[in-house]
Amino acid sequence: MSYAFHTADVFTDSLHGGNPLAVIPDARGLSDRQMQAITREFNYSETIFVFPPENRSNTRRVRIFTPATELPFAGHPTVGCAFVLAWIGEIPLTGDESRIVLEEGVGPVHVLIRCKDGKPVFAQLTSVKLPEINDPPPRPEVLCEILSLEPSHIVADDMIEPEAVSTGVPYLFIPLKKPEMLSWVKVDIAKWELSLRDYWAPEMFVFSTDDWSQIFEGGHIRARMFAPGLGIGEDPATGSACAALAGFLGLRSETRNGTVRWSVDQGVEMGRPSRLELEVDLKRGQLEAIRVGGASVLVSSGTLQIEGEA
User: How far is 205 from 207, CA to CA, in rounded Å?
Assistant: First the structure.
C-alpha cells in the first residue's frame, strides 16, 4: 500500500523554522499500530492522519500522534493540517478567509484560514475547551531541581505562580523572572520521573516576558516546552500549550469586554524560531473564547510505502 504525505513547518513563515509536521491527507485503511509506526518514522513531535468526517457538516476527522502516544488535541497539527489541506486543494478556499471544522478527540475544532493570492498564509484555531485547573503543582523548589534552576528564578507572587492548566491537554506553566533565564533550563529526567511523571500535568511550559506588570493585558512572551512523557524532549512550537497559556493569563486579565492578544516566541534555543499569535475574548469579565494561530510553509510532498497487514 502507498499513502501520500506532505510536511510543513508550522508557526513560521520561513523554511526550517517553526515546528515540523507530517500530514497524511487520506489515511483510510491505516491501523492504530501503523499510524504509530509512521509517526515514529517521521520522528516529528506530531504527525496527523486525515479521514472523512463522521458528521457531514464538518470538514475532516483527524487523529494526532506523538512518537509515544495519541493525543485528543494539539495546536500545531491542527493549524498545520488546515494549511496543508488548503494548499493542496483538498479544502476549497472562499475569498480571503475560509472556515473549516476538524473533528478531534476533544470535539469539533473550528479553524479560520486566511489566504493571499489564492494560497493559505495563516490558520487560526478556536479552542474547544475553556481552561481547566486541578491539583496544585509541586513546590517551586522541586520544579527548580527538575529544571536546573534556583527558586529565585521563578515568579511566585499574589498575581502569578506555577500552575497547571488544560484546554484539552494539560500543561504545567512555570513563569521565570527574565527571558534570558530560559536558556539556563536543563531538564533532569530522573528528577522529572520522580516528581512529575504521575502528576496530572507532567508537560512543562516555561515562559517569561520583559514586562510582567502588563502580562495579563497582552504583550510579548518567550517560552520553551518540555514533554518527556509524550516522547518530546523539547517542542519548538506548542499550540495546545499556548491555548492553555492564553486561558491562564486571560483568567487574570482586568479587561471586562474585548479581545486581549499575545505573541509567543518559542523554539529559539532549538534553532527553530516560532511565532504563535494568541487571542482571548472577554465578556463582562468572563472568558468567552481562546484562539491560537500562525503562519505555515509547505516543505515536502511524497509517498509512504506501507508493508504488512493493518
Answer: 6
CA distances, 9 to each of 18, 39, 275 (Å)? 5, 16, 11
Whether this model's pTM surpasses 0.70:
yes
Could you give the 3-state DSSP secondary structure of residue 249? helix
| Rounded-to-integer distance, Cα 121 and Cα 88, Å | 13
The model's pLDDT over 169-207, given as tens digits with 9 standing for 90+, comes to: 999 999 999 999 999 999 999 999 999 999 999 999 999
Q: 3-class DSSP state for residue 115?
A: strand
Q: 11 to each of 21, 64, 78, 184, 237, how far by Cα in Å?
A: 11, 17, 11, 24, 7
Q: Is 307 known to be catalytic?
A: no
Distance CA 133, CA 164 (A): 6
The domains of the chain, with CATH numbers, are 2-127+295-305 (3.10.310.10), 140-294 (3.10.310.10)
Rounded (10°) angle between helices 239-250 and 75-87: 120
Distance, CA of 82 to CA of 298 (rounded, Å) = 12
Catalytic residue among 41, 46, 307, 309: 46
